[in-house]
Amino acid sequence: MNLAFLHCRLFPWGALEVFKDLIQKELRKNSERNFKIFTLIADYDLKALSIQIPGTEDFKEIEVIEALPKRISSLFLYFSHHQVRFLSSLFNYRNLIIFYPFLMKILSRKVKKFQPQEIVISSFAIAKNIEIPKTCTHTKLYLHSPMQYIWSHYEEYLQKFKGRKRKLFQHITPRLRKRDKKYTQFDEIFFNSKYTQSLAEKLYHMKGKVQYPRIDDAFYFAGICRNHLPYYVCVGRLVNFVRECELIIQTFNEMKLPLLMIGSGPDEWHLKSIAGDTVIFLGWLNHEETIEILKQAKGLINLTKESFGMGTVEALLLGVPVIGFNEGGTKELVDEESGILIEKKDKKNLKDALVAFENKVFDRKVISERIREKIG
Do 2-210 and 217-375 have matching folds? Predict the structure, then answer.
């Protein structure tokens, strides 16, 4: 039996970890099925994804099929990792939003050729807009978020775009929204948070269950560090869009507070160029290294309007309080006992939050206990 997995983009971040977990659940049922992964673009030469078969030491290599021809996707990936004047702006993967409908038609044809009997969709952008082939008898959707660019984060993206990009974005958004609303019929639907569930019901009239992403067991059993160090941590892809990395770094520069940046991304070169002496970039770390650094931190900074927020949950499990944005999934996870939420993403609000945070005492044991109750 053929089972097709769909994921918007195979890049190293939280959504990919959730996607791997979804694959493992299907492997647990029957690892002998014929699996293939379909995506718009995959990180560099990722021809297959290696997933461990639950209950064994064996791994299954699952072929990855992209919508973009490899030579073209390689250009986007190269220039997202290497800053080259004009070309890095031209070959920015965010520009692919213009071609989403066309790329999904290509991907739909490739899925149809595979003739799957089942399809599992992991969607945070466009994957849910796949044309279901007639051979498919069961579809399952795990919705991380409706397409953020055109819905929940539209105003934020609009503010970031300038000139022709801004006008083009305004022009294509109504068309993308109209198309996106056509794809709402699936046999099983799961949401990564109550926030996403509410948003999907409002936009698509979808009904389904909330299934919080699985967090690595290591974060549950790592223990709590009561004698924390004075530094803060920011974890995730280094991008200015919605994550506000530039704002965070500029604020820490001015306040002379120590900040560790864990992660990498397309805006890394620019962010390093504006970072002061108190900001240190560590790149991507493994779970053990991340836990060791995070558990000793004074706090986590995450200003993203999250649909869930795996990094936030990981910090809270370790008893680390959070400074976050008072919307989306963060509002669902962080309360006055476990952090401080800001109403607006600007320097004044972040500075005020940091001053309040510096003068507040948090009970790390209580923080860890409360998040365990919330996510089950």
Answer: yes
Written as six digits, the tokens of 363 are: 């009970």
At 44, the pLDDT band (50, 70, 90 cuts) reads low
DSSP letter, residue 283: E
What ranges do the domains of the chain cover?
2-210, 217-375
Cα→Cα distances 25→64, 150, 322, 370, Å: 18, 31, 31, 27
Of 293, 355, 354, 283, which is closest to residue 318 (Cα–Cα)?
293
Q: Which residues in the chain belong to E strands, given as ranges?
A: 2-10, 34-42, 48-52, 59-66, 118-123, 138-143, 188-191, 209-210, 232-235, 259-262, 279-283, 299-302, 322-325, 339-342
Provide the CATH number for the domain formed by 2-210 in this structure: 3.40.50
pTM value surpassing 0.85: yes
**Distance, CA of 310 to CA of 289 (rounded, Å):** 17
pLDDT tens digits, residue range 247-257?
999 999 999 99
Give the model confidence (pLDDT) of 205-222 as tens digits. Answer: 999 999 999 999 999 999
Superfamily name with CATH number, domain 217-375: Glycogen Phosphorylase B; (3.40.50.2000)
